[in-house]
Design a protein that fits this description.
Blueprint: E1 8-13, H1 16-29, E2 34-38, E3 42-47, E4 50-56, E5 76-79, H2 83-95, E6 99-106, E7 114-119, E8 125-130
Length: about 140
């Protein structure tokens, strides 16, 4: 078997109303334009063979903020189609008041890796990257 990508990701947030306002702007900008669910407990959008949902944290966890190093989600990375797209997401993240962890820059993770890293209102880290060609799936150079 070989999977066909990631179908969806859901994050639970403590600052639900602020996060939903943030994601209502960010997700369509990323191409997740089809709203599947928009209730007082969840926002779920799909597009680009990707689904992303935001759910209100359970009452017993609403006083526990997101911690990147704790067991569970570390960060979410969306793949962009160009460096310009990464730059555009950076501009929107700034407009939305997101904490910018790392402005657009090249990285060592793959040849041509270019990304921006920021946080939603709950502190969940989101990355948008661009890797030219096949990235790490490219054939290794012949010796």
């Amino acid at each position: 078997m070989e999977i066909n990508g990631v179908a969806h990701i859901f994050v639970s947030v403590t600052r639900f109303d602020e996060c939903v306002a943030f994601y209502r702007r960010m997700l369509p900008f990323l191409g997740l334009t089809h709203v599947v669910r928009d209730t007082p407990e969840q926002l779920y959008c799909i597009g680009g063979r990707t689904g992303f949902g935001v759910a209100r944290a359970a009452p017993e966890f609403r006083d526990s903020p997101f911690a990147q190093g704790r067991s569970g989600l570390h960060h979410v990375c969306f793949r962009a189609r160009s460096r310009e797209d990464v730059d555009a997401v950076h501009r929107l993240a700034r407009e939305l008041g997101a904490k910018i962890v790392r402005a657009p820059a090249e990285g060592h993770w793959a040849p041509g890796y270019y990304s921006v890293l920021f946080e939603d209102p709950d502190g969940i880290r989101l990355e948008v990257n661009y890797i030219p060609g096949k990235g790490l799936l490219a054939e290794p150079p012949k010796r």
